[in-house]
Amino acid sequence: MLLQSIKTGIKKGIETTWMLAKIIVPVYIFVTILKHTPVIGWIADLFQPLMGLFELPGESVIVFVLGILLDPYAAIGAIAAISLTPMQITTLAVMVGFCHSLFIESAIVTRLGINIFMASGVRLGLAIVFGVLVGKVGAMLC
Amino acid sequence: MLAVIKEAFWGSLSSIKTIAIILIPMMVVLQIAKDYQILDKISNSLWGFARILGISKDAIFPLLVGIFFGISYGAGVIIETSKQGNLTKKDLLLLVIFLVTCHGIVEDTLIFVVIGANGWLLVLLRTIVAILITMLLSRRLSASELGGIEGMEKK
């Protein structure tokens, strides 16, 4: 039975890795190419005031938006392609951790008969509050 | 341009490699936990935790499944458990509010640790915040509970 569990686990691990690769690789390539165009500079300037609240560079807005709309894996693809400090990555991870895959997960929550706007609102609120908190404290410590 | 494509290609491949190294062993551990019904055994000893959160004892198992295996599994078990009629409406609301805040804690945390985030901070923050929010909501529901349940019964 143990051997069977290990086999199933490895199979699931490979399947999940493959599924993730299909998300992470395109996002990584997209962000890397974007990084070499002037567009990344425009995004960075435009979102600097907003992302500055979390002590993050403007272009990291891409990470958060990808996390909310798609999933944490897309966010990770983008984080890996942008250069950030460990503290900034932790702040983004906290934000994306609280609030991600809103469309998919809301669809699941709806099946349980819970108001999705309440659930999504709570998650977005937590992401912002703790994003600011971790970002500010982190900036103070580093 | 060629340099950019090369950077994108090798960079993304090395991200996938690090993720595979973490993810595959983790899936093996989770699978063993599932096959040997380890969560079933743990949930029997967690009635104190259930009381703190204000959920019934039957809600503990779906909660643990959601925390460790992710929201899809958690929702599946919640639906099954409520079909057996063991969950109250309050349980259901509290379970969902806990799980949307904190779920799939092993996988979600590890993939961020792989790219350089502080894992302990992630785990502790999400778990503690989820517990606090659930407790808060639980108290508020308790205050208005009597009226709500009587009202439902009259219908």
Number of strands of chain A: 0
Q: Unreliable segments of chain A (pLDDT under 50, ≥5 consecutive)?
A: none
Q: How many DSSP H or I helices of chain B?
A: 8
Query: How large a portion of the residues of chain A is in β-strands, by DSSP E?
Result: under 5%
**Tally of individual domains of chain B:** 1
Summing up helix and strand content along with how strands pair, one would put the structural category of chain A as: mainly alpha
Instruction: Summarize model confidence as the mean pLDDT of chain B.
Output: 85
Low-confidence stretches of chain B: 146-155
Query: How many beta-strand runs of chain B?
Result: 0
- The structural class of chain B is mainly alpha
**How helix-rich are the residues of chain B, as a percent range?**
over 70%
Overall spatial form of chain B: elongated
Radius of gyration of chain A: 17 Å
Question: How is the main sheet of chain B built?
Answer: none
From the N-terminal CA to the C-terminal CA of chain A, the straight-line distance is 49 Å
Number of helices of chain A: 7
In percent, how helical is the residue content of chain A? over 70%
Q: Assembly state here? A: heterodimer
What is the first-to-last residue Cα distance of chain B? 70 Å
Structure in words:
- The complex is a heterodimer of chains A (142) and B (155).
- Chain A has seven helices and no strands.
- Chain A has 142 residues and is mainly alpha-helical.
- Chain A has one domain (2-141).
- The longest helix of chain A has 34 residues, at 2-35.
- The model of chain B is unreliable at 146-155 (pLDDT under 50).
- Chains A and B meet through helix 1, helix 4, helix 5, helix 6 and helix 7 of A and helix 1, helix 5, helix 6, helix 7 and helix 8 of B.
Which short descriptors sum up this protein?
heterodimer; A: 142 residues; mainly alpha; 0% strand; globular; B: 155 residues; 8 helices; disordered C terminus
Task: Give the topology, please.
The complex is a heterodimer of chains A (142) and B (155).
Chain A lengths: L1 H34 L3 H14 L8 H9 L2 H10 L4 H13 L3 H9 L5 H26 L1
Chain B lengths: L1 H34 L2 H7 L2 H7 L6 H10 L1 H13 L5 H13 L3 H10 L4 H36 L1
Helix pairs in contact in B: 1-7, 2-4, 4-5, 5-6, 6-8, 7-8
